[in-house]
Write a structure and sequence with these properties.
339 residues; 10 helices; 18% strand; 3-stranded antiparallel β-sheet; alpha/beta
């Protein structure tokens, strides 16, 4: 059994064929897609976060709105770039959204991916400390964020406050109990996966990874997951961790599917360079259901993960994306034992 969710990159563009032509469209359609996904029985609705782009950006208003419109589906991100975040304000935003959702937030955070502008986090008022890299700054923000999610008092109260305070040092409010255990780290390397385990975060592994051995993407990703789980055990955490992988998977069950994806998925991994490192990009899958099932059986990383996030072509509109997700649940998941 696996938890199955969708991951939307939240694109919008006023282009021919686009069903998502404005920022308003993508926000409202994201809410509608989450509502419909819950009706299908999907387990999660996750959203990518990008700055300076025609994509979803500030996630917490969207997550709160989805939380108010749904009741069972997990609501998450994949991922929030911590170079851009004030960790204390983020604790307040996350706590509020999680309380509205009844404790269903699953926040994926990370250093982030290459952005649309050069060092865009500087425009947000952040810069690495002396001797730090931007990756170091993201991890420093993360450590503060995780510490404050524990809900311990740290701030000395004013002796003459406007409103009465509880005794002792004050914490950030609102506090959402249990959210600390629902933070995920988006990792592109074995080393950062091990760091995430030591920090007590769940693991999100996407469709690209630092090429650390030359093997196929899914083999390297499966090894990363095993390294993460070994580090988790070594760290002695009390709970069991969760691990998600993302995939582009399309079951061709209609003429429209065949028009959009009938040329098949990328049958092999792709190699490229991102931020001056060699990266391997995992293949996508698009085929008739029986052949699709056989191809997915060979994916070692999907087998290792407990959660699968299906990337959706959000610009094709809510109705078509509901169809895409429904086809996976009906024609693929049962044959693979995911349902």
């Amino acid at each position: 059994m696996k938890k199955i969710g969708f991951l939307s990159f939240g694109h919008w563009a006023p282009e021919p064929g686009s069903q998502v032509r404005s920022a308003s469209d993508v926000l409202l359609q994201s809410i509608d897609l989450a509502v419909e996904a819950e009706k299908l029985g999907l387990d999660g609705a996750y959203f990518r976060v990008h700055h300076y782009a025609r994509q979803l950006a500030s996630p917490f208003p969207l997550l709160a709105a989805i939380g108010a419109r749904t009741s069972t589906i997990e609501i998450g991100t994949g991922v929030i770039d911590m170079r851009y975040e004030n960790p204390l304000y983020m604790v307040e935003d996350a706590g509020s959204a999680d309380l509205i959702a009844g404790g269903r937030l699953q926040l994926g955070i990370s250093r982030g991916s290459p952005e649309q502008v050069i060092e865009g986090w500087r425009h947000f008022g952040y810069q690495p400390a002396e001797g730090e890299t931007d990756q170091d700054m993201a991890r420093r923000h993360t450590e503060v964020f995780l510490q404050q999610l524990e809900g311990k008092g740290f701030a000395r109260p004013n002796p003459r406050p406007m409103f009465p305070n509880p005794p002792g040092l004050l914490r950030l409010e609102p506090h959402s109990e249990g959210l600390r255990d629902r933070i995920w780290w988006g990792s592109a390397s074995d080393a950062t996966a091990v760091w995430a385990a030591r920090m007590g975060m769940n693991l999100q592994s996407s469709t690209l990874k630092v090429d650390e051995g030359g093997e196929p993407f899914h083999v390297q990703q499966a090894r990363q997951i095993r390294a993460y789980r070994a580090a988790w055990i070594e760290a002695g955490h009390a709970r069991d961790p969760r691990v998600s992988v993302s995939r582009s998977i399309f079951a061709l069950v209609s003429d429209m599917d065949r028009r959009y994806f009938g040329r098949g998925g990328k049958d092999s991994d792709q190699i490229g360079n991102i931020d001056n490192f060699r990266a391997v990009f995992g293949r996508s899958y698009a085929d008739e259901p029986d052949r699709l099932v056989e191809a997915l059986r060979q994916d070692e990383a999907i087998a290792e993960a407990d959660t699968l996030l299906l990337t959706v072509p959000n610009m094709l509109g809510v109705e078509y994306n509901v169809h895409v997700l429904d086809a996976i649940l009906k024609h693929v998941a049962p044959a693979l034992g995911w349902r």
